[in-house]
User: Fold this.
Amino acid sequence: RDWRMPFLQLAVLVSSAVFTPDARIRLSRVAVQVLESQHCRTAGIGLEDYMRLPTEQYCAIPLPLQAKLSRIGTEEFDLRVPPLHFEVPGVPITVEPNMRAHVDARESCVRISSSMCTLVGSPLIEALRLNERFKFCFLTVLTWQFSALPARGQLTADTHVKVDIETPQMFKFLPLPVLEAIVTGATGLVLESLLNAFLRNLATDYTRWAADPAYRAKRSQQLELVSASASR
Assistant:
């Protein structure tokens, strides 16, 4: 037996454990949604009151493109992101990111952040050890403002995504700028669709919540059920 084999095996293990990113994805998007409601500034049912509801409320907001938000603990949520299709020449790949997100409701904003993401949806993910080859950071800051008109408000989502990737060998035939452009383009399209639809649905939900006492009572019951389910 070759006496060098144990040392070679150890070298492989050590090298595979070292994360050496060569591709870097940076995305920033701002989505804005204007809403109309005569109750925007009404005490108790104003836009500010709505945005300061318990964070469980976000589980009741419909998300587009098969996305889903589920509460798993105090201020902790699982977010299933819509599939991302990367049209890499000769090796197209589709991945479905699952994020563990933290939702922090503050005095003047709501922060949704994550640094934990797992990819599923393709045999290539395991074959290429993709979940070991990237580091991920996501931050969305939701804010609300009032316009000069008393019946008009505005929701804003300011989002930043940072991904550092160690490119798998089978993709190294592509120049890094091309690979980064493919990942950035596909991720940006899904992110914009998700943010715009989320704010639109959030505005629609607020308008109904503010105007309909029965709906407010129903939502309150839903929040209690979500909270009780997560605490079990």
